[in-house]
């Protein structure tokens, strides 16, 4: 049965990030299966088309005044009439994260179609501690016909806010055709120097400061350098910190790079490091694993669900010494190609975008038919 799926997400490519990547690849995978997929998102960058088709996905963009809570709320309100009009021809509406839920609730009430929600990010966890947001989230979760979460932690918190309403933990997926072992795009370091990659946007919650602070300890043990892929408000401070700690010559800030460039950049390093202070489930970490790159990550949030000593290692968050010791141990003692191969195998088996799309379509079909949603298989 071919479906018409209507999505809402504040950000969508060419925006770069885990949520944006997840939603784009999910939409594309469903379109490739012959389903009609429509996305309502924001005019988040100058020069973007108000409407275009991106790899089979019909994209509609509406006003976004600012990248903050008031701006997201304004975008939600401004996009609601568009979403309600498009819902006339939709079988199901899917709200991707918090700001997308009110427009989806309105579209559902006007058109009577099922609504699915997914809660993706650490913003949900921090806001859930507030009594105000706890009441808001309880209403959101209760309003949906089915709720998803990007990690077990988010699902558990959501179910605690709305007792009696199930929230399925469904790890984000990876396009394993695009993210696969490829040739490096950067020249290898000279003189046997080792290289790690930190594919993180430069925001405080991603903990890149603690990687920079760990680098002097790491350099004491090994001849190592780092490439940092991502941009954000912390960049100037982190560059200054690297200079202050005497490791500016060991760090290379590449800024934000298009999704298509990432496999080659990841392949240019031996190990990927995720020093997050908060994390739902990291799409970027899964992408590294899909490319055959071992991962060292903070033992926080959803990261322990995907990273263990068979694919890399875990360290304590905000602990530069533990980070340095873990990375040094992996670079010196571990069979990195074997860890990378196991990471690739695991992502293909359990976290591929194909399996993610299949599960979403299974949920949608059950809701459209008015039937109970079947339990997820072990692989999803």
General description of the model:
The protein has 14 helices and 14 strands. With 380 residues, the chain is of the alpha/beta class. The strands form two sheets. An eight-stranded mixed sheet has the order 3-4-2-1-5-6-7-8, with helices on both faces. Helix 1 packs across helix 14 (353-368), helix 7 (208-221) packs across helix 12 (320-333) and helix 10 packs across helix 13. The protein is globular, with a radius of gyration of 21 Å.
Question: Layout of SSEs?
Answer:
Blueprint: E1 4-8, H1 18-32, E2 36-42, E3 51-54, E4 57-62, H2 69-86, E5 92-96, H3 101-111, E6 115-119, H4 122-127, H5 131-143, E7 146-149, H6 152-161, E8 167-169, E9 194-198, H7 208-221, E10 224-229, H8 235-244, E11 251-255, H9 262-266, E12 271-274, H10 283-290, E13 295-298, H11 303-306, E14 312-315, H12 320-333, H13 336-350, H14 353-368
Parallel strand pairs: 1-2, 1-5, 2-4, 5-6, 6-7, 7-8, 9-10, 9-12, 10-11, 12-13, 13-14
Antiparallel strand pairs: 3-4
Helix pairs in contact: 1-14, 2-3, 7-12, 10-13
């Amino acid at each position: 049965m071919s479906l018409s799926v209507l999505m809402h997400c504040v950000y969508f490519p060419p925006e770069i990030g885990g949520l944006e990547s997840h939603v784009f690849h999910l939409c594309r995978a469903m379109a490739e299966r012959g389903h009609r997929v429509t996305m309502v998102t924001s005019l988040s960058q100058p020069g973007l088309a108000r409407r275009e088709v991106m790899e089979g996905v019909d994209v509609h963009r509406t006003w976004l005044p600012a990248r903050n809570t008031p701006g997201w709320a304004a975008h939600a309100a401004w996009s609601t009439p568009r979403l309600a009009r498009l819902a006339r021809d939709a079988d199901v509406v899917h709200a991707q994260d918090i700001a997308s839920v009110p427009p989806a609730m309105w579209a559902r009430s006007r058109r009577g179609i099922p609504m699915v929600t997914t809660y993706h990010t650490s913003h949900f966890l921090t806001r859930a501690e507030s009594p105000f947001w706890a009441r808001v989230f309880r209403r959101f979760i209760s309003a949906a016909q089915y709720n998803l979460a990007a990690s077990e932690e988010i699902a558990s918190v959501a179910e605690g806010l709305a007792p009696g309403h199930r929230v399925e933990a469904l790890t984000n997926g990876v396009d394993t055709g695009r993210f696969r072992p490829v040739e490096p795009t950067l020249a290898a370091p000279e003189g046997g120097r080792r290289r790690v990659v930190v594919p993180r946007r430069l925001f405080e919650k991603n903990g890149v400061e603690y990687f920079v602070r760990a680098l002097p300890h790491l350099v004491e043990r090994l001849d190592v350098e780092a490439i940092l892929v991502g941009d954000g408000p912390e960049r100037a401070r982190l560059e200054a910190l690297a200079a202050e700690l005497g490791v500016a010559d060991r760090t290379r800030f590449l800024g934000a790079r298009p999704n298509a460039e990432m496999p080659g950049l990841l392949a240019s390093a031996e190990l990927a490091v995720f020093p997050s202070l908060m994390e739902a489930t990291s799409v970027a970490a899964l992408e590294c694993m899909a490319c055959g790159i071992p991962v060292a990550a903070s033992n926080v949030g959803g990261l322990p669900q995907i990273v263990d000593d068979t694919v890399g290692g875990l360290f304590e968050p905000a602990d530069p010494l533990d980070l340095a010791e873990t990375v040094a141990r992996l670079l010196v003692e571990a069979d990195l190609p074997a860890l990378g191969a196991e990471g690739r195998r695991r992502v293909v088996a359990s976290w591929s975008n194909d399996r993610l799309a299949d599960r979403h379509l299974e949920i949608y079909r059950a809701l459209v038919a008015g039937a109970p949603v079947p339990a997820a298989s072990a692989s999803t």
